[in-house]
Write a structure and sequence with these properties.
Strands 1, 2, 4, 6, 8, 9, 11, 12, 14, 15, 17 and 18 form a 12-stranded parallel β-sheet that branches. The chain has a single domain (2-169), classed as Hexapeptide repeat proteins (UDP N-Acetylglucosamine Acyltransferase, domain 1), CATH 2.160.10. 14% of the residues lie in helices and 37% in strands. It is mainly beta. The protein is globular, with a radius of gyration of 15 Å. It has 1 helix and 20 strands.
């Protein structure tokens, strides 16, 4: 992993979080316990703050950033899909942000909200708690179902488990 202090801003990473060696974390970044930070992820708290809760996965090639003296917050038990971009926004507990989705300035993705693949949540938009939203711009299409929650809970557990398994089982080979 590549961890950088920037002008006195030092990342705080829980000891049982997994940050891939090809991820980059710099500045005022707080990563909670048993998080999974995938290869190519860029979490940049150079002049803003990034806060990530517990048992959250920030998958490969995600970008997280915040505006000057502001914050990008990701809750606990959240899944951020491969290649997603989060900028100066709030993603609440248990939410899912699909592969390649974008959540922009001052937008909020609610508790147990699910954002579909490639969706764009523009500045200041709210995806309410328990809603599924898709498209560009993101539009609510239905409520999150019990089967959605069961399925996504299983996927989230897989990544929290990987955060424990990777440090023990991942071996570089020639």
């Amino acid at each position: 992993m590549t961890i950088f202090e920037f002008e006195g801003r030092v990342p705080s990473i829980a000891p049982d979080a997994y940050v891939d060696e090809d991820a980059k974390v710099l500045g005022d970044v707080r990563i909670g316990r048993q998080c999974f930070i995938g290869a190519g992820a860029r979490i940049r708290g150079d002049y803003g703050t990034i806060v990530i809760g517990e048992k959250t996965s920030i998958q490969e090639n995600c970008v997280l950033h915040a505006r000057v003296d502001e914050r990008c917050t990701v809750g606990s038990h959240v899944q951020i899909g491969h290649g997603a971009i989060l900028h100066n926004c709030t993603v609440k507990d248990y939410a899912v942000v699909g592969v390649g989705a974008v959540v922009s300035d001052y937008a909020t993705v609610g508790v147990w909200a699910i954002l579909g693949e490639g969706a764009v949540v523009p500045s200041n938009q709210l995806i309410p708690d328990g809603k599924v939203a898709v498209g560009v711009p993101a539009k609510i299409i239905r409520d999150v179902s019990d089967s959605d929650m069961k399925l996504w809970t299983k996927y989230k557990e897989v990544y929290a488990d990987l955060a424990v398994r990777y440090p023990k089982g991942l071996k570089r080979i020639k």
